[in-house]
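Entry 12.
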Amino acid sequence: MYNDKMPSKAELPTPTQLVRATLIAAFVAIVLLFAAVLPAELGYDPTGIGRLMGLKKMGEIKEKLHTERKSDAATKQASETSVAGTNSVSGRIDSIEVPLDPEQGAEVKVVLREGAKVSYRWTVPGGLVNHDTHGDGKGRSISYMKGRQIGADSGVLTAAFDGKHGWFWRNRGSSPVVVKLRVEGEHTEFKRAD
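Predicted 3D structure (C-alpha coordinates):
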Protein backbone atom coordinates (compact mmCIF):
# COMPACT_ATOMS: atom_id res chain seq x y z
CA MET A 1 0.00 0.00 0.00
CA TYR A 2 2.77 2.45 0.90
CA ASN A 3 5.25 3.56 -1.71
CA ASP A 4 7.81 4.49 0.94
CA LYS A 5 9.38 2.08 3.34
CA MET A 6 8.70 2.49 7.05
CA PRO A 7 11.29 4.65 8.83
CA SER A 8 13.74 2.88 11.05
CA LYS A 9 13.77 3.40 14.78
CA ALA A 10 16.94 5.50 14.43
CA GLU A 11 15.12 7.92 12.09
CA LEU A 12 12.26 8.61 14.54
CA PRO A 13 12.55 11.50 17.03
CA THR A 14 13.52 10.64 20.58
CA PRO A 15 11.22 11.46 23.52
CA THR A 16 13.57 14.32 24.45
CA GLN A 17 13.32 15.78 20.94
CA LEU A 18 9.52 15.51 21.04
CA VAL A 19 9.36 17.32 24.40
CA ARG A 20 11.73 20.03 23.14
CA ALA A 21 9.68 20.51 19.92
CA THR A 22 6.47 20.71 21.97
CA LEU A 23 7.98 23.32 24.31
CA ILE A 24 9.24 25.39 21.36
CA ALA A 25 5.80 25.22 19.71
CA ALA A 26 4.12 26.28 22.97
CA PHE A 27 6.59 29.18 23.37
CA VAL A 28 5.96 30.37 19.77
CA ALA A 29 2.18 30.12 20.34
CA ILE A 30 2.43 32.25 23.51
CA VAL A 31 4.59 34.85 21.74
CA LEU A 32 2.10 35.02 18.85
CA LEU A 33 -0.79 35.30 21.31
CA PHE A 34 0.73 38.33 23.08
CA ALA A 35 2.38 39.93 20.03
CA ALA A 36 -0.37 39.49 17.42
CA VAL A 37 -3.64 37.88 18.52
CA LEU A 38 -4.43 39.95 21.63
CA PRO A 39 -3.59 43.29 19.94
CA ALA A 40 -5.54 42.39 16.76
CA GLU A 41 -8.61 41.00 18.52
CA LEU A 42 -8.89 42.95 21.78
CA GLY A 43 -6.63 45.98 21.38
CA TYR A 44 -4.53 44.70 24.32
CA ASP A 45 -0.81 45.05 23.52
CA PRO A 46 1.48 44.10 26.44
CA THR A 47 4.58 43.75 24.20
CA GLY A 48 4.22 46.92 22.07
CA ILE A 49 4.76 44.86 18.91
CA GLY A 50 1.06 45.06 18.01
CA ARG A 51 1.22 48.86 17.91
CA LEU A 52 4.26 48.77 15.61
CA MET A 53 2.51 46.34 13.25
CA GLY A 54 -0.82 48.23 13.30
CA LEU A 55 -2.61 45.35 14.98
CA LYS A 56 -3.49 47.25 18.17
CA LYS A 57 -5.48 49.86 16.21
CA MET A 58 -7.37 47.04 14.47
CA GLY A 59 -8.22 45.46 17.82
CA GLU A 60 -9.37 48.79 19.26
CA ILE A 61 -11.68 49.30 16.28
CA LYS A 62 -13.10 45.78 16.73
CA GLU A 63 -13.75 46.39 20.43
CA LYS A 64 -15.40 49.75 19.69
CA LEU A 65 -17.66 48.18 17.05
CA HIS A 66 -18.55 45.35 19.44
CA THR A 67 -19.52 47.88 22.13
CA GLU A 68 -21.54 49.90 19.59
CA ARG A 69 -23.37 46.75 18.41
CA LYS A 70 -24.34 45.89 21.99
CA SER A 71 -25.48 49.47 22.59
CA ASP A 72 -27.42 49.53 19.29
CA ALA A 73 -29.17 46.26 20.14
CA ALA A 74 -30.22 47.60 23.55
CA THR A 75 -31.42 50.88 22.02
CA LYS A 76 -33.36 49.06 19.29
CA GLN A 77 -35.04 46.78 21.81
CA ALA A 78 -36.00 49.73 24.03
CA SER A 79 -37.34 51.77 21.13
CA GLU A 80 -39.43 49.13 19.37
CA THR A 81 -42.52 50.57 21.05
CA SER A 82 -41.82 54.03 19.55
CA VAL A 83 -40.96 53.06 15.95
CA ALA A 84 -43.19 50.50 14.29
CA GLY A 85 -44.06 48.93 10.92
CA THR A 86 -44.60 50.80 7.67
CA ASN A 87 -48.16 51.99 8.27
CA SER A 88 -49.02 55.15 6.40
CA VAL A 89 -49.99 58.26 8.37
CA SER A 90 -52.04 60.89 6.55
CA GLY A 91 -51.07 64.55 6.65
CA ARG A 92 -48.24 66.68 5.35
CA ILE A 93 -45.82 65.07 2.85
CA ASP A 94 -42.18 66.15 2.43
CA SER A 95 -39.15 64.67 0.71
CA ILE A 96 -35.48 65.51 0.28
CA GLU A 97 -32.30 64.14 -1.27
CA VAL A 98 -29.19 64.51 0.89
CA PRO A 99 -25.80 63.99 -0.80
CA LEU A 100 -23.02 62.74 1.50
CA ASP A 101 -19.32 62.62 0.69
CA PRO A 102 -17.17 60.01 2.47
CA GLU A 103 -17.07 60.68 6.25
CA GLN A 104 -19.72 63.43 5.89
CA GLY A 105 -22.82 63.47 8.07
CA ALA A 106 -26.18 65.21 7.70
CA GLU A 107 -29.42 65.51 9.63
CA VAL A 108 -33.07 66.12 8.72
CA LYS A 109 -35.65 66.96 11.39
CA VAL A 110 -39.40 67.37 11.72
CA VAL A 111 -41.27 69.14 14.53
CA LEU A 112 -43.83 66.95 16.32
CA ARG A 113 -46.08 67.21 19.35
CA GLU A 114 -45.98 64.37 21.87
CA GLY A 115 -47.85 61.37 20.45
CA ALA A 116 -47.86 62.77 16.88
CA LYS A 117 -46.77 60.35 14.15
CA VAL A 118 -44.86 60.44 10.89
CA SER A 119 -44.47 57.64 8.40
CA TYR A 120 -40.98 57.69 6.87
CA ARG A 121 -38.87 55.87 4.34
CA TRP A 122 -35.28 56.55 3.43
CA THR A 123 -33.02 54.77 0.98
CA VAL A 124 -29.40 55.04 -0.13
CA PRO A 125 -29.39 53.68 -3.70
CA GLY A 126 -26.16 51.76 -4.21
CA GLY A 127 -24.73 52.75 -0.84
CA LEU A 128 -24.73 52.20 2.93
CA VAL A 129 -24.73 54.65 5.85
CA ASN A 130 -24.69 54.68 9.63
CA HIS A 131 -27.87 56.22 11.02
CA ASP A 132 -29.58 57.42 14.18
CA THR A 133 -33.33 58.10 14.38
CA HIS A 134 -33.72 60.39 17.38
CA GLY A 135 -35.49 63.32 19.00
CA ASP A 136 -34.82 66.26 21.31
CA GLY A 137 -36.75 69.09 22.88
CA LYS A 138 -37.29 70.94 26.17
CA GLY A 139 -34.17 69.40 27.68
CA ARG A 140 -35.09 65.85 26.72
CA SER A 141 -33.55 63.53 24.14
CA ILE A 142 -34.18 60.03 22.85
CA SER A 143 -32.59 57.67 20.34
CA TYR A 144 -35.36 55.63 18.72
CA MET A 145 -33.08 53.47 16.58
CA LYS A 146 -29.48 53.25 15.35
CA GLY A 147 -27.85 51.21 12.66
CA ARG A 148 -24.49 50.62 11.00
CA GLN A 149 -23.98 50.15 7.28
CA ILE A 150 -27.67 50.22 6.36
CA GLY A 151 -29.07 50.90 2.87
CA ALA A 152 -32.68 51.72 3.80
CA ASP A 153 -35.16 52.06 6.66
CA SER A 154 -38.86 52.77 7.01
CA GLY A 155 -41.47 52.88 9.72
CA VAL A 156 -43.76 55.07 11.77
CA LEU A 157 -42.12 57.35 14.32
CA THR A 158 -44.31 58.31 17.29
CA ALA A 159 -42.96 61.37 19.14
CA ALA A 160 -42.11 60.58 22.77
CA PHE A 161 -42.39 64.31 23.62
CA ASP A 162 -42.84 67.74 21.99
CA GLY A 163 -39.78 68.70 19.96
CA LYS A 164 -37.64 68.02 16.94
CA HIS A 165 -37.38 64.43 15.79
CA GLY A 166 -35.42 63.14 12.85
CA TRP A 167 -32.66 61.23 11.18
CA PHE A 168 -28.89 61.57 11.16
CA TRP A 169 -26.78 59.75 8.58
CA ARG A 170 -23.01 59.41 8.19
CA ASN A 171 -21.29 58.01 5.11
CA ARG A 172 -18.45 55.78 6.34
CA GLY A 173 -17.81 54.46 2.82
CA SER A 174 -15.17 55.57 0.34
CA SER A 175 -17.60 56.87 -2.32
CA PRO A 176 -20.24 59.63 -2.24
CA VAL A 177 -23.86 58.54 -1.67
CA VAL A 178 -27.29 60.18 -1.72
CA VAL A 179 -29.89 59.58 1.00
CA LYS A 180 -33.49 59.90 -0.26
CA LEU A 181 -36.04 60.61 2.50
CA ARG A 182 -39.83 60.81 2.29
CA VAL A 183 -41.93 61.77 5.32
CA GLU A 184 -45.73 61.81 5.65
CA GLY A 185 -47.57 62.73 8.81
CA GLU A 186 -48.49 65.13 11.57
CA HIS A 187 -45.31 67.24 11.52
CA THR A 188 -45.36 71.05 11.37
CA GLU A 189 -41.81 71.64 10.08
CA PHE A 190 -39.39 69.75 7.86
CA LYS A 191 -35.81 70.87 7.33
CA ARG A 192 -32.23 69.83 6.95
CA ALA A 193 -30.36 70.66 10.14
CA ASP A 194 -26.64 70.40 9.49
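Annotation: DSSP finds three helices and ten strands in the chain. The longest helix spans residues 15-42.
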